[in-house]
Design brief:
heterodimer; A: 750 residues; alpha+beta; seven-stranded mixed β-sheet; 26 helices; 28 strands; 23% strand; B: 84 residues; Mth169, Chain: A; three-stranded antiparallel β-sheet; 33% helix
Chain lengths: 750, 84
């Protein structure tokens, strides 16, 4: 029997050591490819290995660490990494699919399209599973707001998110924005999507059934974003400015059609498997589906719909054109699929068949150009797995040492100063550009609560959703900081009354080949795992983004957490705004606070320093229980977690969260108060307002759950005041909080 | 002096507007249209007597502000007989 050997395509370059290096493959990796194939790869094959073995697709430098996270159990319907997004049961035959993903590098180069396609990609991950997206969030990090490039990036990124989300028709309900020197030149743009699916309509990303047709659907393939996946796995440099053709243009209207057509497939017998074409496009979708189903695939690239003439197999396989999907149908049922997609004005073309030999084969112009074991490309298959060297960075010891700090003396002035800080001030200027009401299921809107709350249509239920990561804490102490990020994201969800049911993570770090960076990564994963185990929130999936470096060094380690929670009766969910006069205000949770990496400390010292206050995860768990039970038993009328700026800032935010009906508070502390008490920061703390009739019941509950609970004042009045010691008016709170961000960005406000 | 800066989507870049217009033209019985690019035209009035100088300035403006080199290409064209 003669074995057909793949040949190179017309004008394909020779495989030289330079070409191999340009593809980001190490010498060992290249040798491994040669031994897997038993020959020199063709140029097309080299391209395919290079994208599939890049960090972005293979997680080669992170998977060993990720496997230590709790990735199953609870309400999880699939384990992390098995499908395009995590899937968690919420009862009534429904499941929630959600995931967060980075689009940092594309956004650094072309911020509008980079952010827009980031949103498009994560929405596809969710609806590929058969879930209809019901909410989008995003976590953004930039350099200092005085910088003109930062202003440009923020403006473009926000417009890109708004453009895609608003046109597609998904409400952008929440997220976060941080400004920090370390993100200068390497902004972080993380997008999260949440969708709903009926259990029996979940679609899977696996191919099966020899002879079944492989069908390409959606937009045509152009030369967009060739090598985006390897591009994401490199440090940003002057050269990446030159590689501008890497960025794709998104088309949210086509995505909307793709959504509707895809969801029509759900539950249909005609469909075997489906996967979206994201990073590494046709390559990743074909070989991952083949590997997952332990089958092979043969594709005829002459049939792939292309936008440009003369595209080579290499370009077709590596293109990252948006709004495309690959699916496998049951032979004989393909017309059903074509009918659905044609009705939605989308192309659907049979481009290949499923084979039984486990190999990915590609043909064009009658030539065989690629013949590789699909398994050898995929994560968990033949893709390399590394454990990198770790060294504790020197800064950890020096920055954890105590530094002299001027504590606030004029509390009123300190409060107003803090409220206007770019990392504390209202994000209204940004979120008003997003449609957060489309589909009219948003119950707690941006700015109204620690978590967004969306209704689950057709039920009484709701979902509380939040993203969080205070990277300053992670910088000082990666292990505890990452645990605190999980604690805060889930606490935010609990503050709405929802019980956290799972998290997704977007791990933004520097170059993993730097032992100091890899140390922060492994420490952060360890901390995250501890927190997830205690808080019983498994990690449903996520994304790793390494190489977030600019010429000045790595970004702060930023493991962004997206948390999702469930509330049985959405009408019981609460926001943070003081609603009624005469309610008792309680400070609940830990009494551990410090200046370390607090907003006040940063404002005065510039860089984070000091030792983080102790984190007691068991107390955190009990605090969240108190919040959830207190809200669902309708004792707690509003709740707010204490974060940047500490207690007084939180109280001010609660006073103005209801824009139409602001309400102040009169504080009364039983013990002597210190500046640290008022402005210091620490984990596991929240402020709640409790109706007078429920005070006894609430205190009993707190005692039963063993959560420290202190009465600190009463709602009412036109400001936040404490005896003669300090007093800030609603007007001043508003002026500083609402205009702080615009002022920092140099935007004139009316 | 009147100068046009003609901006079109860069070659090979997806142009959703152009594709939408093309589809609409096909539906209106213009099947002979094989491709449409939708861009923009910027008209500049430049105080200069020298055409080459004005073109050079317009190119600088296009590079700095008027076009997005990630996704667009441009052409600077001096125009005769356009009044202000």
């Amino acid at each position: 029997m003669s074995v057909l050997k793949p040949v190179s395509y017309t004008n394909d370059p020779e495989i030289t050591s330079e070409i191999i290096e340009l593809h980001g493959l190490s010498e060992e990796e290249y040798n491994e490819i040669v031994s897997l194939l038993g020959r020199t790869p063709t140029f097309t094959e080299l391209g395919i290995y290079s994208v599939m073995w890049s960090e972005h697709a293979s997680y080669k430098n992170s998977i060993l660490q990720l496997k230590t996270l709790p990735r199953s159990g609870g309400r999880l319907l699939v384990s992390a990494g098995e499908e395009n997004a995590g899937l968690v049961d919420i009862g009534d035959g429904l499941a929630v699919a959600f995931k967060i993903e980075s689009h940092n590098h594309p956004s650094a180069v072309e911020p509008f399209q980079g952010a827009a396609t980031g949103v498009g990609g994560i929405l596809r991950d969710v609806f590929t599973m058969g879930a209809r997206p019901i909410a989008a969030l995003n976590s953004l990090r930039f350099g200092p707001p005085e910088n003109s490039r930062v202003r440009f990036l923020l403006d473009e990124v926000v417009r890109g998110i708004a453009h895609y989300g608003n046109c597609f028709g998904v409400p952008t309900v929440g997220g976060e924005i941080y400004f920090e020197e370390s993100y200068q030149g390497n902004p972080l743009v993380n997008a999260m999507a949440v969708g709903l699916v009926e259990h029996d309509k979940v679609m899977h990303a696996a191919a099966s059934g020899e002879g079944n047709p492989v069908i390409y659907v959606g937009a045509r393939t152009g030369r967009d974003g060739i090598h985006g996946a390897t591009f994401a796995s490199e440090e940003l440099s002057e050269e990446s400015e030159q590689r501008k053709s890497n960025v794709q243009v998104g088309d949210p209207f086509t995505e909307k059609l793709l959504l509707e057509a895809t969801l029509e497939l759900a539950g249909k017998e005609a469909l075997v498997g489906i996967q979206d074409m994201g990073a590494a496009g046709l390559t990743c979708s074909s070989c991952e589906m083949a590997a997952a189903g332990e089958v092979g695939m043969i594709l005829n690239l002459d049939k792939v719909p292309v936008r440009e003439t003369g595209m080579t197999p290499y370009e077709i396989m590596l293109s990252e054109s948006q709004e495309r999907m690959l699916l496998v149908a049951k032979r004989g049922h393909e017309d059903e699929i074509f009918e659905i997609f044609n009705r939605w004005d989308l192309e659907a073309v049979e481009v290949g068949v499923v084979t039984g030999d486990g190999r990915l084969k590609l043909q064009k112009d009658g030539k065989l150009l690629c013949d590789i074991p699909a398994h050898s490309l995929a994560l968990g298959g033949g893709a390399p797995v590394y454990k990198r060297e770790t060294v504790e960075p020197e800064y950890i010891v020096t920055s954890n040492a105590p530094t002299p700090l001027n504590e606030p003396t004029d509390f009123t002035a300190a409060t107003l100063q803090l409220l206007a800080r770019p990392n504390i001030a209202s994000r209204r200027h940004v979120f008003r550009q997003y449609d957060h009401m489309v589909r009219t299921n948003t119950r707690v809107l941006p700015g109204e609560g620690d978590a967004a709350v969306v209704r689950v249509p057709g039920t009484k239920k709701g979902l509380g959703i939040a993203t969080d990561c205070n990277a300053r804490f992670v910088y000082l102490n990666p292990r505890q900081g990452a645990a605190m990020a999980v604690a805060e994201a889930t606490r935010n969800v609990a503050c709405s009354g929802a019980t956290p049911i799972g998290i997704t993570n977007c791990l933004n770090f520097g170059n993993p080949y730097k032992p100091e960076v890899y140390w922060t990564f492994t420490e952060a994963i360890a901390g995250m795992g501890e927190a997830c185990r205690v808080l019983e929130t498994p990690v449903t999936g996520g994304n790793v983004s390494f190489y977030n470096e600019s010429p000045t060094g790595a970004v702060y380690p930023s493991p962004v957490i997206g948390a999702v929670g469930l509330i049985e009766d959405v009408e019981k969910s609460v926001g943070m705004a003081f609603k009624k006069e005469g309610q008792a205000i309680f400070l609940i949770g830990s009494d551990q606070v410090s200046w370390a990496a607090s907003e006040w400390q940063i404002m005065n010292n510039g860089k984070p320093s000091g030792r983080l206050p102790e984190l007691d995860l068991n107390l955190e768990k009990r605090l969240q229980q108190l919040l959830i039970q207190g809200i669902n038993k309708e004792m707690i009328q509003c709740a707010h977690d204490l974060a940047e700026g500490g207690l007084v800032v939180a109280l001010c935010e609660m006073a103005i969260a209801d824009r139409d009906n602001p309400m102040g508070a009169l504080l009364e502390f039983e013990e002597e108060i210190s500046p640290l008490h008022l402005f210091g920061e620490g984990p596991s703390r929240a402020v709640v307002a409790v109706d007078v009739n429920s005070i006894d019941e609430f205190e009993l509950l707190a005692e039963k759950l063993d959560v420290p609970c202190k009465w600190i004042g009463t709602t009412g009045g036109k400001g936040i005041g404490f005896r003669q010691i300090f007093s800030v008016s609603i007007e001043d709170i508003r002026a500083n909080h609402e205009n702080g961000l615009a002022a920092a960005l140099g935007i004139e406000t009316a | 002096m009147t100068i046009y800066v003609e901006i079109l989507p860069k070659e090979g870049i997806l142009d959703p507007k152009g594709r939408t217009v093309k589809n609409a033209l096909h539906q209106l019985d213009f099947p002979m249209v094989s491709n449409v690019l939708v861009g923009k035209l910027i008209q500049l009035e430049i105080e200069s007597e020298n055409v080459d100088e004005a073109v050079r300035l317009a190119e600088q403006m296009a590079d700095k502000l008027l076009h997005n080199s990630n996704v667009e290409q441009y052409r600077v064209v001096p125009v005769e007989g356009v009044s202000k």
